Amino acid sequence: MYRSGSKVGSVSGTPYTDAGLNTGTTYAYTVAAVDADGKADAQSAAVSATTTGYRPQCFTDNNYNQVAAGRAHQSLGSVYAEGSNQNMGLYNLYTTHTLEETSSGYYVIADAGCPS
């Protein structure tokens, strides 16, 4: 059993339980048959699974601090929310926004209220 290209375990049948995953995150899984000598065949086509149980988090701060915290990034003087790439305005004007993390590492502007 492979998760995102890395071997995570051996399976002799179904089902398979994967532990230690982040909530609200999509993972890609593949399998490969192994012969009697332990040689793995080509990996199957990937299937995806998304974990549940994610609780949105909200962060209100100025654009500079949102970038410093890794919730946004700046490009050519403008700031964009990580994941959604929503334009948050200029980097150096200390514009304040509320960002909602709707899934791991994915932020949307939620100035009207959070959680949305």
Write the layout of secondary structure elements.
Elements: E1 2-3, E2 6-7, E3 26-30, E4 47-50, E5 57-62, H1 63-68, E6 72-75, E7 78-81, E8 87-90, E9 96-103, E10 106-109
Antiparallel strand pairs: 1-2, 1-3, 3-4, 5-9, 6-7, 7-8, 9-10
Structure description:
The protein has 116 residues and is mainly beta. The chain has 1 helix and 10 strands, in the order βββββαβββββ. Strand 9 (96-103) and strand 10 form a beta hairpin. The protein is elongated, with a radius of gyration of 20 Å. The model has no long low-confidence stretch (mean pLDDT 89).
**Order of H and E elements:** EEEEEHEEEEE
What's the helical proportion of residues?
under 10%
The total of helices stands at: 1
Estimated share of beta-strand residues: 35-45%
Overall outline: elongated
